[in-house]
């Protein structure tokens, strides 16, 4: 796909576990395609006026998840662009249905070492705030990977890949997916 000629008809929704690079890759992808970028975590923080740890702490995870569904539905009604989602968003059947209807989903699949290296010293993720963070991350991989696998496109990402490599792999995956959809029509 030539970047200049590619017109994004649908939003690309990046899904995957904490630390897989949704936000950093998403920003680069948006710049490359000349479209807008949005991070759903940032939008939730903005509309709640609280950080994610504060939302979990004061309102509870349920409220955060409700906010996630609302924000994603609202953003999907806007112009096509790149959307990075929080790691738990695509686990919601409601979110998956919305994404399936209105967007193309891309799972950034990473191994535990890649994820752990990226999240281990970074605060701000309530699910990984305890001493057992690595065990929690491993458990979330087991629980969530079968669900992320429902994404339209799967792109593998490793610690040694640059974001540029991942962006190229996503663009190739999207081109293949769009061509396949046209064939199936
Ligand atoms: C979460 C992932 C976080 C954030 C929240 C919950 C999850 O986003 O939405 O802490 O359930 O996996 P990132 O995946 O961007 O870290």
Give a summary of the structure in a few sentences.
The protein is α/β, with parallel strands linked by helices and 185 residues long.
Shape: globular
Indicate the structural class.
Answer: alpha/beta
State the major sheet. 5 strands, parallel
Count of strand segments: 5
| CATH topology description | Rossmann fold
- CATH architecture name: 3-Layer(aba) Sandwich
CATH top level?
Answer: Alpha Beta
Percent helix? 40-55%
Number of domains: 1
**Integer-rounded radius of gyration:** 16 Å
Helix segment count?
Answer: 8
Order of helices and strands: EHEHHHEHEHHEH
Uncertain stretches of 5 or more adjacent residues: none
User: What number is the mean pLDDT?
Assistant: 95
At the fourth CATH level, what is the homologous superfamily? P-loop containing nucleotide triphosphate hydrolases
Description:
This protein is α/β, with parallel strands linked by helices. The protein has one domain (11-170): 3-Layer(aba) Sandwich (Rossmann fold), CATH 3.40.50. 55% of the residues lie in helices and 13% in strands. The protein is built from 8 helices and 5 strands; from the N terminus they run E-H-E-H-H-H-E-H-E-H-H-E-H. Residues 18, 22, 41, 52, 86-88, 125-127 line the site of shikimate-3-phosphate (S3P).
Core attributes:
five-stranded parallel beta sheet; Rossmann fold; 185 residues; 8 helices; single chain; alpha/beta
Present the secondary structure layout.
Elements: E1 11-15, H1 22-33, E2 37-39, H2 40-48, H3 52-59, H4 61-76, E3 82-84, H5 93-102, E4 103-110, H6 112-119, H7 133-148, E5 153-157, H8 163-184
Parallel strand pairs: 1-3, 1-4, 2-3, 4-5
Helix pairs in contact: 1-8, 2-4, 3-4, 4-5
Bound molecules: shikimate-3-phosphate.
